[in-house]
Records
---
Amino acid sequence: LAEPPGRALVERLLLLSRWESQVWKANGCVDITQHGDGRLLRNMMHNRRVYDWAPESWVFPGDGALEFDFTSLARPSKGAKPIADEVWRKLIATLRTQLYFASKKVWNRAFAVVRTRHFLRSLGAKARKARRQSIELEASVAADAAEVAEATEADAEEPMTTTASVARPSRRPKATFAGVCRAAAVQESDESLRSQDVLCVLRALSGRTWILCRHLRELLFLFRDPGRRLDCFVIMYPRCLDWPINGKSCQNAFSEANWERLRQRVGVVPLFPFFQPESTTFAFDMALNEDRRCLHQLLRLSGVESPGGGNIKAPRIQWRKPGTEPKWETFQGGIPLSWENFETIPTVGLIELTYLCSPEKVKFRARRRGAAVVGGWGALPEDTNELASLVQWTTLLDDAPKEVVSLVAFIALKYSRVEEVWNKWDPPGGKLILKEFLVKMAGIGARAVFSAPCLAGGDASAPEGSLVPMPSRKQTAPAEEEPDAADELLISVFRFFDVDKAGELTKSQFTSLARIMRELRQSVVDFRGHVLNCFRTLQEAWWNAPKAGGPAGDMSFLEFQHFAKEVHFSGPVGHIFYLLEQDRNDCLR
């Protein structure tokens, strides 16, 4: 702030903040700023300390470092059209080529080291010759990495912060998969440098084009580095015309920790799923104005779609009052009805709840009103049929119970659409009770999915947040020692559908599995694209992946999981393996 350019920038941002807030208020929208002061500057820090700035003050410190995030309230206008799909596909293809093609040499030569070391296990008398080849290849990898590092240092005019390590190998890379990735660190740094250039171009051009959420998701997976992916999201998400409708689909591109970073960076309201809050567990800090706004939106929506608050499940609160020990308390009589008035919501405490709604009770008009008044998305279509056609229903795999996702993976292998299962059953009256549901599921062989002990009791050896390997399709009956384990999990699936606790399952409730199926299949597409970002072809990826039987051998689940981890893919690895395995003796070929 001691430099005139810095002070001038802060003054201009303050002026822009006040102007956008006035336009926002004139459009009939409520205040969604972090502290309810109408100021779009959030997370303010002065000299790395929290800075409390008076709402109406224009006076700020005369020196020191002032840090903050600026969240614009600009929204698409009516009549905005997204970029053509053909143009977008060409853009993605060009970016993929420029981001990854130039540095293939380091990766390919590095993976050759791994292939040679695998051959050492089976060559016997030819081990010495193979070892000499391995040493020569390792030296070549180090030379290539050093050459690219020197070129990168010579071309860089300014130092740039990157998440990848840039270091010249001081010794031969270790011939393991992790060692190969370290040997290819120069490739990562080269990618980070050029991906930063791509972000600069996107920032310059973002104000001239509109996209859709499916476009944004495809763009996000081009960036392997989580920091670059976060920056790309912040630049492009306001340009999504259907963001309040289908923005939930982009959440799967981030880990839970990174999504929380985005909520802190751009705000809770901009990332709120106005049209698809189902099966989502929310946590709100009621000391913040933006969190109370989202809580109020959920309470009002529940009052319209299910009077009496029936869609709010498992609410609990942790009071944060001075001098009291924080502990979770449940609402014995439900959330107070007085909270439907925004002014009566307490300003202390942390509240958690889950929103569930039957497909028959979805009120698109109420959801659009919330997106317009709270989110500022007033350009959305007003016709409910047009809104319904725009929604691409998505359920986050982390939000659905594991047994439900496992059942969907099983159905996805045998049927192209969830409706085919229900039409095959054709229950009388169009409804199923629990007993009939268990019989029908046993008829299509779904009990075998839940017979594995890892699904019944969990997998303690799996890393936190990972998915356990799926059971083999060759097993057609539940384990004899636990005959009721599959039924217990199927009952849990039935209760997940039966949101209204009516004891009956309707077609619309069952076919809501299509949301999870769509996400599972999209995850396979994301995995394929991510692998192609690392290798030229899928055949090359298969040849380079470490397998116990050598490059031509089969790949077990543990090897597949290790491969996905080393190429930095974050997704449902277990279920992707299950969908790809295709009944081949629990191995990929």
---
Amino acid sequence: ILYSLCLDSLSILVDLGGAMSHQRVSHADMCRVIASAPTREYLDAAKAAIQASRSNDEQFTEHAPSLLNEAIKNYNLASRKADLDDANRNALDLQLGKVHTQRAIAEYSQSSCNLELASHHLKFAADHFQAYRKSVGAGVAAPKFNNIASRMIEMCDANVDAPRHRRSLAATLAANLIGGEVSSYEGSRLPRVQLQMYLVEQCWRQSVRILQGETSNITAVFSELERLCISPILEPDEDSLIFAWGRVQQEMTNAATFLSKAKLHLLRAGAESPELSGQLKIALDSKSEQVKFMLQRACCMRKLGLAAHKQRQVFTESDDLDMQGAYDVVDAWREAYAVAESLEQSGMAVDGLEDVQPNPDVELMAVASSLLGNLWATMRFEDKAKQLHINVLRLGMSLDPNSNSIDEPSTVLTSKPWWIKSKKFLETKQREVREAEERERAAALSEIAEDIQALQAARNLCSKPTADDDPRPFLKHIFAKHPPKTAVPTNITDEVDGVEVIKKTTFMKVMSHYHPDKLDSHYHAGAVPRTEKLLFEEIQKSLNSIYEKNYKS
């Protein structure tokens, strides 16, 4: 009766650190009350309060803070009981550490979070965990702490909504909860590996939020870069994807730092828990690859943005063209391309990612190549522009193995603006080349129009409607008017001058003498006059027509 009266009516309060205070009763009276109550009642009351603080989905209830305060109070009361043996006292230290941690997480989950109060609970949690580790030894404590770390991460995800609160809580837990950032720390390392990985995950999630989930689609970024080459983007512009990727770069830099700490702790963990260490190693390697790729992409985005900004300044914001400035812009695009090839070429520190193999960002390589190709075209360096746009198409083909050829790309490539524009550029240039060649050919043919007409007349003399054509009129004409560069053997000329049917082998030898490719060896560097090349092509056409009719079958 006295015990119940003291708790319910006299409002005995026990503070969070375990020191007792009183209202209207003396310290001696409180000690007698605590001593008279069974230890099991305190422990059961604490357990009941903890269970009532969470719903079935592990989320804290509305009254979780007060219920967890009640659990802490009862555990503290139980810890003052003289009938506790060493084993139970050690277990009580572990339970107090856990419930203080839960109370801190519950505080972080509140809309009006009291960070000082949360820090107060985490300090006591760390003290109790340290006491437990020192009492039972690191070997016994390690599995317990591993489970606690996993549990804390689950509770944090389920209850703390604000990303900055999650990160603050996880960082505090990683730094202080299981033993402090000191080189002489002899406690369990794996819990801290888990917490550092959780911090990496928070950086990753924040990056995804910043990009609104568009981590792989850079179509909008390409369009923004094209606009940035012409008109400026006012900073800070929350709608700018280039600006968003700048924030992602900072997040991924932080993630790399956390990965470095996680790998250091894993290295020092030794044989603490081989199975868990193996699982964490696999997870670390996978996350390292993701972080490095995202950091590389973010860094390249920044380089691309700087190159576009510099191009606008040189080409649109100045009345006079600065050629040195133009070449500086070219170097800026090339630098962005180099970073897309490998993060190591960015010049930035990659601590925590040294063991990750270089992996090119093929799509950003294509973007940089396309935009640089546009710049060369603007500067009238058509050949350089063409080579870069060809490179864009090659990169695109390597990016999507489902594309059969450049002329038959998949829907993945046809949805990429850099692919479409580079392909259109090359098609335009090819069409211009064909049209120029056709005009040049037509001009050259007009110069030898009389020779071609004479060739056609000689060919017509060969025609025999009801029998094989007689090639002699045509062969005699070309031998007389357009002799080949290499002298024709006399046995061939004698056969042509004779009356017997010209043999197939003889005719084929004549064809070889008039093949247009045979002209190259007779001119320096193969610079055959265009009219002579066209004339031999026309001769070859007529010879082919006779061969098709007389000899092929």
---
Amino acid sequence: AASRDGHATQGACVVTASEENELKSALGGSWPGVRPRPLALRDASFAFWDKVDPASFAVRVMNAGHESTGTHILLNWTCSAGLPSVHATQSCHLTTPQYNAHAALMDFYRNQLLETPLGEMRPVSTSAPLELRTLLRDVLTSGIAAVHGAPYAYLVDEIVTAIPAVHVLHSKLHPMTWAKWYGTYMDGRDVVCRDEIVEQQHLSSHWDLVACLGSAAAMKLPFDRAFARAGSLAVSPRSHTQLAARFASHTAYVGSAIRRRTQYAQVCLFSPSELANGGPIGEVEIHHGDSPSMSGQALHTARLLQAIARTRVPAVGNYSEARSPRLRNWWRQAVSEVRKVCEPLGRLPPDLRFPSAVSPEGRGCAILPMHMVNVVANLSLPTSQRPIDFTFIGGLNVDAATRAARAWLIPFISRHFTERSFLQFTDRASRASWTPLGEFDHTLQREAFIPKELPPGDPRRFTMDLSFYEVLGRSAFCLCPAGDKAYSMRFYEALMAKAIPIVLSHTDMVRSLREVRLDYKYYTAADAPNFVYRKDWVDHNYATFLRYHTLFNVLQRARRIVRKRSRRPPARRQPGQVR
């Protein structure tokens, strides 16, 4: 809630507890809720978008709002900022190839979904999800800089997976206001996934378009059993509530999942009757109407989008530009573990394939050796018995880049560290003139070093600091600020030790495009003080770490191959065969 120019805005788009109960009862078992949920990242999305050159994406802004939430207003702003922009019914600054790419996607959306009769009994095509992703790829790589409303709003998972650095603007209305307006004044042709598919397939929302198409195709369902018209769900007060429940759940999903992964701003719109008392919510404020007003908060919106137009999409860090001796050493150790398992065979078997997401250069996912994982597991306490709440062990004033990236640490530590916390700055510059910040500060009480401050031949550069991992394995949360590059090794180590990372923003973990797309569970400093040590997050992070940051699966396959070939009987000698 906020107040500007004397206009109170509390409750304009917020779903209260009583309203949530009303919405929940309207949908029953298929209600996904308005609680925060993670982004629905899927292997099929990764497999598709990993093949696209990230440098080819031009989209900087997407509006994740539904029809009738003011998407045209935001379109006007991106157009006024000079961005090539598309909407279901309008566009601006487009070249012919860009228009054709957008038109092809809209034709698919109309022909396959909007114009299909509800009584259509043909099964949903198994090729529909791939065709939709392909058309979306053509739009995202055409040079179009801003996409608005349907169907792009229903492809938000795909767009954020493809372009982690995209700016997401989310135009909103209060769910009940939107449902009544939509059912009364709009034709309601938009389709929603039916409740049974959302419930059975655990979709992120009723507008999870690609997942609904894929689920319907896999289940061989006809169109009318997979989708319903949104307008048909808003013909009575009770159906208004049911449509509002679906809308509230989708809005909450976008707001919670997208906010943790990219740059996000909500745009809360007021119904016409509330315009007289309109005001800002979130970072952006615009008014409900046919065209934006160049006064008050609307001017702020224009300036925001003009700033976006002048800003390049942040480049993803690349290992080839930020070579790390420690990453190379970890990789060599991990490969050596695989070679050791395969020693009985005399060589690495040709059918033992390393995952495409990793490479010796580290352009995919950073790889840690399994012996490190096992050592840390033995040093760590169970997740239910962790005595340390927050921990940070590392450098503060190593160099100018590190000092700038970690400037937020001292204010955060001063506000949130307690007697249960653990702090130790380990760089020489900090320790030389340090004044302890409290009982939790062990900077001057323990020996410490920074690997990069050691001579090149010092063996400690690549040995495990067991005291560091022992503290980390007893901690619930670990501060993982960026260092001299836009990521920190500590993020991987926190995942390995089952501590939940805390970063300044999502850009503090941008080491490679592949890693940005992984669905890590973490907090940002802005989430304070709402830090909860969640076992489901810890288990998810640890499974993600083992899958993408170790060669655990490769080792398992290598062991199976060795066992299988060691049990194979010697080949029988054929008549006339020379031994």
---
Amino acid sequence: MKDNITASTTTTPAATKTAKKKKHIFKKKIPQKGDPDYLSPTQLRNRRKRKAKKKTKLQVNQPQQQQKSSDKSSGAGNNNKINSTDEELKDPSMKYISYPTKTPIVRTAKKYIEPLLQSSNNNNNTFNVYIGPLYHWRTVSKLAVRPVDTTHNNNKVAIGLFAENSHSLLPVPKCKAHHPSINQVVEVVTKSCHELNVTPYESNTADNESKSEEEMGQLRYIGVNIDRSSGGAQLTLVWNGTNGEEDEVLDKLVDAILSKMEICKSGETAGEEPPMKKQRRRGRRGGDNKEWQVNDDIKKPISNNNKVRLHSLWINYNSSWKHSNRIFEYDESCWRHVTGPTSITEHLRFPTPKSEGQKGVADPAPLSYPVPLHFPPTVFRQANLDSFTNIVGRIREHVLKMSEKPLCVELYGGVGTIALNLSDAVSHVVSSDENPNNLKCFQDSVKQLPAEIQPLLEYKQKNAADMVTSESNLFQKCELLVLDPPRKGLEEEVIDFLCKGACSSIKLLVYVSCGFQAFQRDCDALLASGRWKVDFAEGHVLFPGSDAIETLAFFGPKR
């Protein structure tokens, strides 16, 4: 006991001295006016407000985080339930909306491509990235329909997106990326389903593994495509059933939806090219988003009443295996056209740097005739056709500078969106795609073009691999090759042909990529072959808010 008291007595002065010393060392000097760290009274007051706001937010979020943990542990294994965790998740399509041109994939693309441009001794060594409107740009959307809560056996439906890497549905009734008409359609379908007690489809989990396909539910997905000229919605109901079988619930659902929507007049959906209007700058001078403003006629649905505008209504019967993640069944027998025109007709309107408000955007000479593009729900259509127009414009701008009109071959051509808009700049076009529904769309477009242009346009219903292996005579004459593959990139047969095959006649290789990892793989292979070099590349953010980039690259033969 005595030793303990002595130790305590001897250490106290030292400890006090150290404490005083520390206090003296860390004493802050108040910055004076003119010092780098000096803050004015107003700046100090604003800083205190920010700290107080942050503290309040932390206090509010703390019990919510505890509730999230509780819900996660109690709700394990139930992927269909939309619990508080799902409701508090942010819209996954808007994750990077605060810095859409600085996402991880954009930074990766810049780091990879700029050295390639420099090594090509190119005058333009910068990988520029362009972006269009931040909001209401999406005119194509496929949304899942799932139960709000499977634990209470109710039929309340939720329509939205799956959270990342899960089957938990996140309702997005007011998604800012969607064209306003899409959000209105979601509201109409949701209300109609609730009125009729329609059973939403259940995601496959351990809880319903024993259920038959018929017991999994009725409405699986909805697909919505918007006619930009009228704001009308091309609506597809993906139904768990078989075409030709009577279904009273489906018939009632169709009637309920039609009663809440206004069918567009034929003149408004005939596909006339909208008049070119001088675009006005909105907002205060010097605003951050002045370059992202677009013509109001494109973005706002036009209606004389409160009803949502309907372009057409379709049923897609999808009774595929419950483990399948396929949204549509593309067999012709699985589609039923209920009402409205059979396709949306769109025209690309090439912007100018002045009208678009973006320095460096493509400024191609416009075609002297309109080019209609036909989009039924059975074919692929760009979700952001406004921004994709800039990509087509850049390609057109470059092709027009070629010394002679080239013979053009397009692989993965879809309905011919790119090739048809090059029809006056090339000597001949052969577009191709494996989707059998594309052929009629292409032919319908060609019929509306000038008589002297029509014989120059041809379409082959083949996939890209078959094209390069079976059309050797065509590729011996090909001078312009346009590639617009899906996210997975080029097939091995296409890469082998470009690296080893008889393709010496190609003067310009255009690669439009929506999956950068695949583009990087394919680009590495092309450069490693010693045949190709990158002459030009730029990026386009077609999905503002997502970690994605559309890459446009021009490859030239390496002499």
